[in-house]
Each structure stands twice: as structure tokens, then as C-alpha cells.
Design a protein that fits this description.
Blueprint lengths: L1 H22 L6 E4 L2 E4 L11 E7 L4 E7 L4 E6 L5 E7 L5 E5 L6 E8 L2 E8 L1
Antiparallel strand pairs: 1-3, 2-9, 3-4, 4-7, 5-6, 5-8, 8-9
Length: 125
């Protein structure tokens, strides 16, 4: 009986430690990238709000962009030498894009250049 109780207690303690490790904010790998943008309103329908939310995921080495109402265009990353290191096209009906983060450390600019929206965000890798 003591062995069974000891095993149950050990499993309970391990599960508590595991859940504490999962909730620890120091393990958070999602970093927001602030994008300063301008909306270009064309046409009659102005009810759509344009936005772009950008996050850098350190653990997967990706940059994810959630957006709405941008129109067609390109999202790209520029390095310190003004060279494009990564780019993805954006289509009218699309609302999500993933870019591979640069391999080298340094300061980069994320540019969203679309028919309805233009924005730039600076980030350090």
C-alpha cells in the first residue's frame, strides 16, 4: 500500500512540475514585431479595415504575418545592406503568410507592400 501511495504521489509531483514548466513565461518564444503602416483606401467600399499583425517565432525560426484587407502584393525582409533575404507573395483572399527568419544575426526590416496597405517593421534577429 505504501508503494502505491508513493507512486501516486510521485506522479502527482511530476505532473505539477511539468505544468509549471509549461506555464513559465521565460519559455515564451513568440516575439511581436511592431509594424507601422499606412492604409491606401481605393474604390467605394471602405468598410474593410486593413491590419497586419507580425510575430517572430524564435524556436521555429519563422516570422508569421496575420492580415486582412491588404490586397495583392509582397511581404519581404531586407537586411542591413538593403538586400532582400526573404519574400512571399500576398493574394487578395489570403490572410496569413509565413516567412523564414534570417539565419544571420543583425537588424532587419519587414516590409509589407500591397495594393491596399504599406507597412514596415524593424526587428533584431
Amino acid at each position: 500500500m505504501k508503494k502505491v501511495l508513493s507512486i501516486i504521489l510521485a506522479v502527482f509531483c511530476i505532473s505539477l512540475l511539468h505544468s509549471y514548466a509549461d506555464n513559465d513565461n521565460s519559455n515564451q518564444y513568440k516575439v511581436p514585431i511592431t509594424v507601422k503602416g499606412n492604409s491606401f483606401h481605393t474604390g467605394i467600399d471602405r468598410s474593410l479595415e486593413q491590419y497586419a499583425d507580425v510575430y517572430q517565432y524564435i524556436n521555429t525560426n519563422t516570422i508569421e504575418v496575420e492580415f486582412h484587407g491588404l490586397g495583392e502584393g509582397v511581404i519581404y525582409i531586407i537586411d542591413q545592406n538593403n538586400q532582400v533575404v526573404e519574400s512571399v507573395p500576398v493574394w487578395d483572399n489570403q490572410n496569413y503568410a509565413t516567412l523564414t527568419a534570417p539565419q544571420n544575426s543583425g537588424t532587419y526590416v519587414l516590409v509589407i507592400c500591397c495594393s491596399q496597405y504599406y507597412g514596415e517593421g524593424l526587428f533584431v534577429n
